[in-house]
Design brief:
Strand content: under 5%
Radius of gyration: 21 Å
Order of helices and strands: HHH
Number of helices: 3
Structural class: mainly alpha
Shape: elongated
Number of strands: 0
Helix content: 55-70%
């Protein structure tokens, strides 16, 4: 059975491997699935930080606020 997912090889410290195993067991899922979900969460956090940095630079006393109509038309 083929899959559309890509595989990567990771070398993990023992404590990280053990933590993933314990979390996977707690959540009744394979360790690989738990590791995938944790990576997704980590990426989301990185994205949130990037968007926050952009927003923080734009949020100043010179910021111009536009209405929905000004941006999208109707």
């Amino acid at each position: 059975m083929s899959t559309t997912k890509s595989r990567i090889n990771l070398s993990l410290p023992d404590e990280v491997r053990d933590a993933i195993s314990q979390l996977a067991q707690r959540d009744s899922m394979p360790a690989a699935t738990k590791a995938e979900r944790l990576l997704e969460i980590g990426i989301e956090l990185e994205e949130d930080e990037a968007w926050d940095n952009i927003a923080s630079k734009r949020d100043n006393n010179e910021a111009v606020f536009l209405t929905h109509e000004q941006v999208f038309g109707s």
